[in-house]
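Readers of this paper often ask what the protein records in our data store actually look like. This encoding replaces a full spatial description with a residue-level series of whole-number codes. For reference, a complete record is included directly beneath this paragraph.
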Amino acid sequence: MPYEEGGYFCRQIVRNKPVSSDKSKTELSVVILNYNTADLLEKLIPSVLASNYPDFEVVVVDNASTDDSRERVKSLFPQVRLIVHVRNLGFAEGYNEALKLLETPYWVLLNSDVEVDPDWLQPMMEFMKKHPEVAATGPKILDYYDRERFEYAGAGGGFMDKWAYPFCRGRLFDTLEKDSGQYDDAREVFWVSGAAFLVRASVYTKLGGLDALLFAHMEEIDLCWRMKNQGYQVWICPEAKVYHMGGGTLSKQNRHKSFLNFRNNLAIIVKNAPRNKLLRHIFVRLLLDSIAAIRYLFSPRWRHYFAIIHAHWDFLFFFRRWWDARQAGAEGFEFSKHPGYFKGSVVQAYFLQGKRRFSELVDKDGDKI
């Protein structure tokens, strides 16, 4: 029989037994945050349950869905652990509150719209166990609908340019490369995608987890940046592969997604960049974002112009909360020294120089990233 454990934010329901028959030895929790994606859960959870790794459990965290997500999980996947929030806490806090209930030393944060290869966990876990200095790693992320092409949210590993614009191996802005094995080397990166994010529970807890102020979008980049500011490493492990549908909760056409992306990108600069870089970075970013807003104004997605303006006003009006969220490590590290940093401008390379592939990026010194 299931049981419930009360709490202000969530109630926990556990049915039958976890994937590992000996829960005391379970070392890995694959945690799927869900909000009204019942069809995706039914379609994609079987791939997660079929993972070849010998010691893991699957946990679904329901963010107060109004569809039949909970009922379907309980009826179709009785071996899956279910945590139910009583209200929608967003991506960041939704994970944070649920993860407090877990005791496993490793966690995978996995989007509900991701299908996984059977062997996806083994190479990432082996790498983490061999390298204690690595706090987080992620798999190669390919397009669910076109499996020879990288997917937008993470692709072959995340990077950061000199103005703190995030981009990926295999994806510059909306241009997605075909995967021909050109980025199959494991390497240290600036960030890995929250669509499939393997992290040490101890580091996640030590750093306070994802920032709930961000609500959703950019929160994994912020966490990776904080990890690097504290001396940890973040790596991509392309031997592991997953397939991401994208837009499971908010599509690219959604103006609120644009609002969150533009506001949160500014917020994580304030939170993590060295103090002597902040004024210049914020000024340049506000300027470049305004140019992007004008481009939207003369496009079919013209309503996103107002989302960017709203993002700027919200960022400036609540500037103090982003400043208060800064951590001591932000002063100790020049983020241009972090592996995964590009000394050039990805905006200039893409829009003015016509660069469309990660391998074409060259900084002002003539060095490739």
Summary: The CA atoms of residues 91 and 216 lie 5 Å apart. The mean pLDDT is 90. The longest strand covers residues 233-244.
